[in-house]
C-alpha cells in the first residue's frame, strides 16, 4: 500500500501546481518558428489533465487503474507477481509494477526471445543492454531485482512459475504489433494449460482517457474535437522480492547477444540478411562513386566522426540516439527542450546541440531521431515526455500555459510527436479488434513506425499488393480475396505515410519506401516496387506493374542517384495548398481516374481518403511530391527480369498510356502487356478482369518454379 500512498501525495502535488493554470492547451505543427507557434489557424486542442484515469480495455481485458478522488482502487493480492518486461524498460510510470507492488513479492523478468531480439539492429541491441543494466540498478534501489532469461518466452515463464510455485499473477504489456500479439497469446495459452495456472493480466499505459477503443473516431479531426484529457504519469513503486533466493541471471554483453542472434535456428537466409543491411543509394551509385562521388563519401566520413566524439557519461549510446536509463534520457530531454535558449548549461545541452544539425533532417524531425529508439524500448513513456514538455513551457511562461500555442518550437515538436505516436497506436489497436472485414488488419513496426498490412491464404505462391501514391491496402478491396481464392497467399500493405499507417515527420523518398518493402517482398506492383526488384532481385521472382509511374529511356546504363533530399519553405507551402485543394476536389479527381466505371468511386472510398487527409503528418508526406526523383527509368530497374507483366489502363488521365505502352513494346522485349479499357486504377475499376489476369500470370509462373518456392 506504500506505493498507493506515495502516488496520492505525488498526484496531489502535481494537481495543486496545475489548478491555477488554463484548462485548454493548443499546439501547432512541429518545427514552425515562434511566429507560427502563435498562429491560431492550425491549432488543435487537448484538455490539460486535472486527474488521471487508466481504464480497462473492454476488448482485451487490460489492467486498469482508477484515480478518482486521487486514490487508486486496489485489492490486496497474495502470492508472487511476475512482471514480464518487453518494451517497457523503466520503473517510472509503469502501471504493472505499481499493481504488482501489492503482492507479497515481485519478480520483474526480461526474456531474450529470438522473436524479439532478432528484429533489433546492432544499435538497438547496444541500447537494450545499457537500458537493462540501468533498470536492474533502479529495481534494486526499490527493493527488487531484474531476472534475465534466454530462450522462448513460453518456456522461460513456464519454468519460472514451476520454480517459484507461489506465482499468482503474470503481468504483460498489451502489444500493438501482430507478431508480438501472437507471441503474447501463445504465452498466455501455455500458462493457462498449467495445473495451477496464474492469472495473465494485460496492461497498457494509456495516453488519453479513453473508455473503449471502439468509441474512438476513425478521423483524427473528429478525435481532436473530443478534447480528451491526457493522463498523468505514475511514480515508481516500492517493491519487494529482491531478497528471494533465485537465479536472477546475468545480463549478456553486446557480443554475447550478437552470437545469440546468429545461433537462432529460425533466422533469415544469410543472403537476405546481407541484402537488408545494404543501403539503396550504395547499390545505385556503386558504378559512379569515383571523383564525382567524393563529396558523398567525405560527408559520410564527417558524419561518423561526429558520432564518435562522446563523453564517458554521454547521453548518446550510438550515433544520434539517446539511450541508457530513464534518468539519462530525461536529462537529454531537458537539454533538448532548452535547445533554443542558446546558452550552454551542461554537457547534456552541448551534446544535443552538436547533434541537432544531423537530427533535424527537416523541420521538427529531430525529436523522433533523438528519442524514438528510447521510446520504442519503453525507457520513457509518452505521457512522461508530454508532462515534462508542459512543465518546461510553464517555467518559460511564469507558470501559465497559453491558449494561443506554445512559446517554444521544441515544446511544440515534442508534444506533437508523442501525440502523433499515440494516435497511430490507437488506430492500430482499433483496426486489429474490428472483425467486420473479409480480411483482418495486422500491424508491423518498421524502424519504430507502425505499418498496416493484411494476408489472405495459407499456401501457394506469395503475392504482395502495393498501392500507389495516396492510396492504401484497402484499395485492393476486391482483389485480395479473389486472387487468394486462386490458391495463392496474398499480402497487401499500406506503406509508410498513407492510409492508416504511421505518418512520421521524416523526409519521404521513393528509396525510403523501397527499403521498407524489401523485407516484405516476393511478388509486387508499382514503380517503387520496380526499384525493389532491381536492387534486391533475390526477393522477387516476378513483377506486375499496374499503371506504374516512371519512364522508358533507351540506352540508359547508369544510375546517378542520391538519397539526399532537401525540403524548403516553398514545398511546405505547396503541400498545404495541395492538401486544401485535394480535400475540396477529391471526388471529382478520383472519378476522373475511373472513366469506365465511375460508380466504383463510392462514398466509402472517398471517405477513407478524406479521413487519411486529416491524419497528423499528412502534409509532410505531400511535401515529397515536390522532391520525387523518377529519373531512374523502368527499363533499367526491370533489366534482367524475364517475367514482367504490365497491366495498363489506356484511359489514364494522369499519364500518356499510348506513348508508354509503345516505348515498352519497343525497348522492353519480353514484357507481357495487357491493355485495358480503364483509367488510372484498373485493379479497382475492373477488379474481375484484373484478378483473372493476375491469377493466370501467377499460375504460369508456378509451373516454372520448384515446389519449395511456395513454402
Automatic annotation (TrEMBL):
Keyword flag Lyase: yes
Regions crossing the membrane: none
Keywords from the named record: Lyase
Protein name in UniProt: DNA photolyase
Sample GO molecular function, one term: lyase activity
SUPFAM superfamilies for this protein: alpha/beta-Hydrolases (SSF53474), Cryptochrome/photolyase, N-terminal domain (SSF52425)
Domain of life, source organism: Eukaryota
A Pfam family per the record: DNA_photolyase
Photolyase/cryptochrome alpha/beta domain segment(s): 79-218
